[in-house]
Every structure is written in C-alpha cells, then in structure tokens.
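Project standup — Tuesday

K.O.: blocked on the structure for the chain from last sprint. Re-posting the sequence here as requested.
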Amino acid sequence: MNSLVLDSPAALAEEATLAALLRCCIREVAGPRGHVWPAPPYLLLRVGGELLRVRARGGAALRFDAPPERLVRGAWAPLSVADLVRLAATDLGDGNAEFAGQVAASRAALAAILEARPAATPPQDPWLASEQALVYGHPFHPSPKARGGDGAWLRYAPETHAEFPLRLLGVRADAVAQEGDASVLDLLGQAPPGYRLLPAHPWQLDLLAPGFGGELIDLGPGPTVVPTSSVRTVYSPDAGACLKFSLDVRITNCVRKNAWYELTGAVELTRRLAPAFAEVTARFPGTRWLPEPGYRSAAGHLEGLGVIVRASPWSVCSPGVTPVLAGAVDRPAVDPARWWAAYVEAVALPVLELYFTHGVVLEPHLQNVLVGLDYEGMPVEAVFRDLEGTKLVAGRHDLSGLPPRVAEALTYDAERGWARVVYCLLVNNLTEIAATLAPDDGTLRELWLIARGVLDRHAESLGRPLPLSDLLAGAPLPAKANLSVRWARAADRAAGYVPIANPLA
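H.V.: unblocked you, prediction finished:
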C-alpha cells in the first residue's frame, strides 16, 4: 500500500476492498467465534490467529475512520488485502483456489471504474444519476465489484456513466416466446414482415454468439439505453420503460441470467401483486411498485435472450416527486431526524404490511428501493422493484395452477421469508441509511429510537404479531453471509445468515 500514490485509483480501490473484506471478517469470521472486542476508539479482532485493530463507528454498519492494522512482533503494521485474504482463509479452511482471484478482480474492477469515472458525464436525469452512483458496491461483500465475462464490461458499466445502443433482432413470428404485455418493445424499431422485434444487450450477444439465419435475424444497432445499478437492467427513453436482460456473467454472487421460470414468474407476480399493492397504497399513499407486465424472447434462446419489461419509476411517482435510488442517498439538507422518520414510515411500513397482511415477501435492500423526494428533499414515496426477489409466503396463496418449478421459485416458507424481510429491510437498508445520516454514534442511537417508535406503533395496528414483537424486543438480526457463500462457491439462494446485534433493542 505504501508503494501506491495517495488517493490514486489503485490506492482507493485497495482501501475500499480491504474495508469491505474486513467488515465481512468481523461479521462472519471473528464475530461468531467471539474474537471481536471493543477497545475505544478501536475495535480489536482476531483473524487467522493474528490480532487486528481498526478505528470503527456506526454500529452494525461499521464505518472505519483509519486504515486497519495488524500486530507484528509487538508493533502495529499496515494490513493489506493480501494479508487479510490469507488470514481469512486460515479460519475458513477447506481451501478455495478462486477466492483470492475474485477479491483481486473486484479490486482491479474498482480501480478501473475510479480511473474512468472522472472523465465521464453523468446523466442529467437525477434518478439515472443515482443509479450510476454506487461506485464501491456492497459494503459487506468480499468482492463487491467482481465482473465475469471478458474485458468488455467497462463499456457497459453504470459506474462509468455508460450508455450504449441496443442490438435489435428480428424473431420469426412462429418462434417468438412471450407472456403478458411486452408491446413497449415494439417502440424500439421496426421488424420486417413475418418477424417480431427483440432487443438484445450487446454484451450478451457477444457472449452467446447465437446463430442467425434461422429463427433470428440481426437488424443492427438500436436506440441508446442507460444501464442502472444492477448492470443488466437498462432504461430505454424510447420505450419509456426499463428492460431487464439476461447476462451470462457472474456479478457479485450470481450469474445474471433470466431463467425460464423467472420469466414466467415476473408476469405471474405482476398479476397477483396488483390487488395487494392497491390495498397497501390505500393505507399508505406513498407506496409505489414497478410492475413487470411481460417478457419476450426467442424460443430457441429462451433464457439467453429473454428480456423482461419493467415500468420506469417516473411513470409511477407523483408529479413533483423525484425518485432516487436508496443506495445513493446522502445526508440531506433538512433535519436528519425528521428525514429519517419520514423514510422509515415510507419504506418500512408497506413492507411489514405486505408480509403480515398479504403474505408477500419483498426484498427491500438498497438497490431494490427508490425513495421519492419532494421539493424539500423529504421522503414522501417509496418505490419497490425487482420481482425476482419478491416471494409469496407458502400456504397463503393458491399456486395450484402453476408449473411446479414456477411455484417453487415464487415461494418462501414463513420463517425464511421473515428472515429475508428483516435482513433486507433492517440490516441492508435501514442500518446503512442511518449510518449515512448520523455524524456520530450518539446521533445514531437517537435515530434508532425514532425508528423503534415508528415500528412499535405499526406493530400495534397489526395486532402485535410475534415475529415483529420479538424484533422490537431485541432479537438478533439475520445478516446475510456473503463471504461464506462465496467461499463455499454456493448459489446465492443458498446463502445463510449470521446473527448481529439489533439496534432497536
């Protein structure tokens, strides 16, 4: 680290990568072993048999105020990413030959983003600018900027303010695979007689190299689109909609391909959720969601070329309300306590209402929630999106008419569903937002007292269901184990949870 130029992209990438991996080690390696001790102003921990220290604040969000160090022959020395990878591997055991490379690749990708970003022009649209603001990625992930595929990824990266033309394909009419309403795709261009228009992500086309001359013809470049925070979902001004493409690329934990049952599931969930969201919006008028009314693909490339249509946030927000990605929220100009109370009410109450009253599991993490801000910058609406992570509580919905694989993908049992809601809402979302708003730990405690009051009042209106009562009583929170699932090389759906302290206690 000493050989790097201070504040160079490489140095910043090393610092951010080290911080993310250290948070994972505190939460998943040292913490469960009882090897974390407060020693103000430091946090001490033991990883791989060595003693580490770091100046920390922010409660469960873990913000670091100085570079971490390790004890070497009685003196504190700088800790590097390579050091921490080696120490973590000692504790995790059963060697993973890919892990060090994944962490290094994420660090290299972040350095490339930081190198390219200053020369790029951000979108004028404030929502799209917020989508492209997540430069450092998930703060509790060992490789938050890992990108598979080849070196082409940078030209499609939202963090570099990319925009690019779609590729347009024509699908022979008898080979079109479609469910629901995907008619906005026809606004993107003109297919020849006997064909239907199918937009494709150019990166995916390069990866798949599908054969043309059969059911598909190449119509060339199409309208320009803007990638959003998930990389594979883009906004098309021509269609006035978001388009969620398949990408045969691992991004953080998953290969981002639209499985056939997810294509069908998006349309099915859109139909089923409409009445539930209508009822919740009647009670909480600031509640919004982004339906996914249809998909289109080619029968011979169903998953690889499947594209899901999603409403844009501008189409659902009220006039005068500006949608902003929750993960890009910065400290507001107004009173943070007042802003926080409005945010908790707008985001948390509909999520809890949908779970307990309607048996719907939202996945309200920081990339799946947009906060609608009024002219003063106050939260007045919350927009929930991405039906891939939305589930129905098993036993509370009649799924008998669906193919078994679709029904399986659409459901969680009640316990798993509640763990997912609590993790996404409390750990991933509210904990990070609170740490962003609070300049110190004293203010952070005040914010959580406010949140507790908001949630307690809503619990009363719900009849104080036991899971929510336990949460308010201080039951530990489930934190997703991103490091463990990467180390195990398991599917993201198999990720477990580790208990962390509940700031509502």
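K.O.: great, moving the ticket to review. The domain at 317-473 is CATH 1.10.510.40 (Transferase(Phosphotransferase); domain 1). Residues 129 and 198 are 27 Å apart (CA to CA).
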